[in-house]
Amino acid sequence: MKENITVIAGGSGGIGRSVVRKFLRKGDRVIVIDINKITDESIVEEHNYSFIKADITNPEDIMTAKKKIEKKYKKIDNLISMAGVNMKSEIGGMETITIEDIDKSIKLNLNSHIYLIKIFLGLLRKEEVVKNIVMISSINAISNYGLPAYSGAKAGLYGFMKAITGELGSQGIRINTISLGTVPHSTDVIDGNEYFESKRGKLPLKEFVKPTDVADAIYSLVYRMKAIVGQNIVLDMGQSL
Ligand SMILES: NC(=O)c1ccc[n+]([C@@H]2O[C@H](COP(=O)([O-])OP(=O)(O)OC[C@H]3O[C@@H](n4cnc5c(N)ncnc54)[C@H](O)[C@@H]3O)[C@@H](O)[C@H]2O)c1
Question: To test the ligand 1 pocket, which listed residue (113, 180, 182, 190) has its Cβ within 8 A of the most ligand atoms?
Fold first, then answer.
């Protein structure tokens, strides 16, 4: 049986590692593109895992990664674009955000996704089955949680997705976004932490989204929910209600 190839940009992060694990265990070949390596042995020792170091805010790095993948595998089946982080200086809003951090945030949280899709498009075109792109956004894009540049960039992902859904569809590619609420990377960081405890108390089920929930959602979206096209799925345990 043909091995599906899933590229996960930002796959070394706290949520990314769960997504990588899910796709590996389901039998995909997973190629992580990230500036940082995964150190977790349960992942790096898997025969179907590979890593390419790249700064995805730099199109030349993405081009080099694409060439390596093309040489070895020719085509890919899924692109999960999930690198992203807010800048420290934007935590205090417009008062504190620096011009340098505005540029950095937009470059990572919006531009890098557009670069990745532009550069990887040729590897994703349909042969016998439809190919998939999932971009990870945030509920910062749909409500008021501060972080001006990060939120603007995450909202920009929707506009970008809507603009290209038809063009990509005609090439046999489905694209969707998932907007995450707060996803603590482990239960250890929640218990006894005032910030997380108070946030958790306001959630309808008093439970945060877990990294494994994100992995399940992305996997289902890619392999099961095939009629969802050009949509933003909110995965936030009711946080944005
Ligand atoms: N954790 C949350 O509460 C939360 C909430 C909403 C949305 N999100 C989104 O989910 C995604 C994953 O978040 P996370 O919590 O795993 O974050 P994380 O910081 O743990 O992981 C981000 C990953 O992106 C990589 N990365 C950063 N800059 C890069 C660059 N220039 N080139 C290549 N790789 C780069 C990092 O090395 C890291 O592996 C992000 O897009 C984030 O905005 C997270």
Answer: 180
* pTM of structure: 0.97
Cβ atoms of 235 and 181 within 8 Å: the answer is yes
Domain ranges of the chain: 5-235
pLDDT, position 127: 79
Element (H, E) at 16: helix 16-25
Does the CB atom of residue 13 touch ligand 1 within 6 A?
Answer: yes
For residues 173 and 176, give the distance between their C-alpha atoms in angstroms, rounded to a whole number: 10
- CA 68/CA 90 separation, integer angstroms: 36
Q: How far is 37 from 47, CA to CA, in rounded Å?
A: 16
Residue in the block written with tokens 């089955």: 129
pLDDT at 135: 98
Q: Let me know: does 17 contact 41? Beta carbons within 8 Å.
A: no
Angle at 228 between CA 159 and CA 6, to 5 degrees: 85
How would CATH label the architecture of 5-235? 3-Layer(aba) Sandwich (3.40)
The CA distance from 118 to 125, in Å, is 12
- Using CA positions, which residue lies closest to atom 22 of ligand 1? 13
Q: Mean pLDDT for each 10-residue chunk of the chain (241 residues)?
A: 92 98 97 95 94 98 98 96 98 97 98 98 88 98 95 98 97 97 91 89 96 98 97 98 93
Nearest to residue 239, comparing CAs of 199, 185, 210?
199
